[in-house]
Amino acid sequence: GEYYALILFAISGMSLMAASVNLFTFFLSLEVLSISLYVLIGIEYQKSESNESALKYFLLGAFASGFILYGIALIYGGTGSTDFAAISDQTSGGSNLLVLAGLGLLLVGIGFKISMAPFHSWTPDVYQGAPTPISAFMSTGSKAAGFAVLVRVFVSVFPQMRPDWVPLLSGLAVLTIAVGNLVALVQTDLKRLLAYSSIAHAGYMLLAIVAGGPEGSASILFYLLIYTLMNMAAFGVIAVLSAKGDTCHGLTDIAGLAKRHPIPAMVMAVAMFSLAGIPPTAGFVAKFYIFTALIQTDHITLAIIGVLFSGVSLFYYLRVIVWMYMKDAPISVVTPSVRLSIGGVAAICVSALAIIQLGIAPSYLIEMAQQAVSLLQ
After folding, report:
1. pTM here?
2. What gap in Å lies between CA 281 and CA 310, rounded to an integer?
3. Cβ atoms of 226 and 218 closer than 8 Å
4. DSSP state of 160
């Protein structure tokens, strides 16, 4: 019973983070989310990996919360308020060193939550050790809440300080994309590979914040929903297979998966194609939207870097498909007699269909993202 209660508490914290218009409300919402995740990650307390992941996330998360609180204190000291509208009015005249320092500390704390390099070190270990559904939940929900706060803070509260924070955020975005994609090349564990993939995708979304404007902000919201569907499909396949005793940790475990379980293999293939940004999947549209926003705002170099690293990511995403469809299963792997969960297979199929449908007809969702962003302007 506590599992579902903690999930609801975490969702409440995420929702309040996205809706916050005050720094203290944001911080309290973040703590509701974080404390719930600390317990959820270690909920399989009989497994040492789960305990280790929970302890790592707790220690680093508490440290990140300290950075956020110090950042809030400095911003309050520089503006005399914690309300977003009042802070925006107070900083409309130009840069304030105290506020800039507070904004930097705030970025460090939120960067931890969204797996931004160089604050990403916890991500592969925690994703690997946590229960698979919680790994999927963290990689989508908490990241979405973190980016919702970043969009509100940088785009709506501190737009007049763009010349100060754009170079810093640009460098961090490129570093995050590079670390995520390059380290993922050598991963053989599926959950660690998806963790580094998550880091790389956080970098792409940071590029959209650099682009700024209504198009940049809308592209983040669109990307977040598409990214959620892609990760739900990928982690969902791992969870469905693991639930019935068919190990699905390393690449060797999924060798010949297309013969043993053709439907989960097909869903995983769709997720990998979409994460790589191959048309006609939704992942291609999401990346295209971000790169278009960058070009429209004269950040052509960043767009080129993003495209090049997307090409690098093809290697490790397509490698998963090669192992599923073109490699033979080891002799030790016996075709399981048990049937996979019908509900689980149906859920991952819905995610795969949504990825394809939004790749073919994304206009309605893009319009919704643009309408949502207009409320922040």
Report:
1. 0.91
2. 14
3. no
4. G
SS3 21: coil
- Of the candidates 252, 227, 185, the one whose C-alpha atom is nearest the C-alpha of residue 369 is 227
Most distant pair of Cα atoms in the chain: their distance: 70
- N- to C-terminal Cα separation, the chain: 41
Gyration radius (Cα) of the chain, Å: 20
Contact 81, 19 (CB under 8 A): no
Closest CA to 79 of 59, 57, 99, 58: 99
- pLDDT in 10s for each residue of the chain, 377 residues: 889 999 999 999 999 998 888 999 999 999 999 999 999 999 888 888 889 999 999 999 999 999 999 999 999 998 888 998 898 888 877 678 889 999 999 999 999 989 898 888 889 999 988 888 898 898 888 888 899 888 888 888 888 888 888 899 999 999 999 999 999 999 888 989 999 999 999 999 999 999 888 888 888 889 999 999 999 999 989 888 887 655 567 888 888 888 888 899 999 999 999 999 998 899 999 999 999 999 998 999 999 999 999 999 999 999 999 998 888 776 655 555 457 778 888 999 999 999 999 999 888 888 888 888 777 65
> Which residue has tokens 């705002």?
297
User: What Cα–Cα distance (Å) separates residue 367 from each residue in 123, 215, 218, 315, 353?
Assistant: 32, 11, 9, 33, 20
Note whether 324 and 258 are within 8 A (CB): yes
Give whole-number Cα distances, 359 to 159, 250, 288, 372, in Å. 32, 29, 11, 20
Q: What residues have CB less than 8 Å from 371, skipping those under 6 apart?
A: none
Among the listed residues 153, 239, 225, 156, the one whose alpha carbon sits nearest the alpha carbon of residue 190: 239
Q: Which structure tokens are listed for 211?
A: 């682009």
Q: Locate all alpha helices (DSSP H) within the chain, ordered by sequence.
A: 2-19, 23-41, 48-79, 84-90, 97-113, 122-129, 132-137, 143-150, 162-184, 190-211, 213-243, 257-260, 262-276, 282-296, 300-326, 342-360, 363-374
Q: Taking CA 209 as the corner, what is the angle to CA 270 and CA 135, rounded to the nearest 5 degrees?
A: 45
CB atoms within 10 A of CB 307: 14
